[in-house]
Amino acid sequence: MTHGRPMTNPRPGLPRKDPAWLEYVESLRCTICGSQWQIKPHHCRHIRGRGGKALKPHDCLTVPLCPSCHARIHTGFREGEEAALNERLVYLLMEYLDTALSDEERF
Fold first, then answer.
1. Which of 41, 59, 74, 87 pairs as cysteine with 25 (C-beta 3.0–4.6 A)?
2. Average model confidence (pLDDT) for the chain?
3. Distances (CA, A) of 92 to 39, 71, 81
4. d(Cα 17, Cα 77) in Å, to the nearest integer?
């Protein structure tokens, strides 16, 4: 937040979609239970006041979840799940930035 207000996108023309990153996230294990079954990226909406039902965050703000854990996240966290999600998000975001800023081929 900047002076109590949510941060705005400094580059509004910047795309929010990154299909290659989403494909990579789908190849990972579920953040909560470790399953590899039907993994889908979960967009973390409550990062610094960003996102909401009408606006998805950038695809880099995703974590891998199986259908069961994904459904549970949308109905409420169990003890320890939110911390695990946040920890994994930070790790994946660092990986995304490291890859995006390098000269090597992406993913």
1. 41
2. 75
3. 15, 21, 16
4. 26
DSSP 22-86: HHHHHTSPPTTT---TT-EEEE---STT---SS-PPPTTSEEEE-HHHHHHHHH-PPTTHHHHHH
Tens digit of pLDDT for each residue in 17-49? Answer: 889 889 999 999 998 899 999 999 988 865 444
Contact 67, 40 (CB under 8 A): yes
Cβ within 8 Å of residue 77, ≥6 positions away: 85
Q: What does the domain layout of the chain look like in residue ranges? A: 34-101
* Separation CA 20–CA 25 (nearest Å): 9
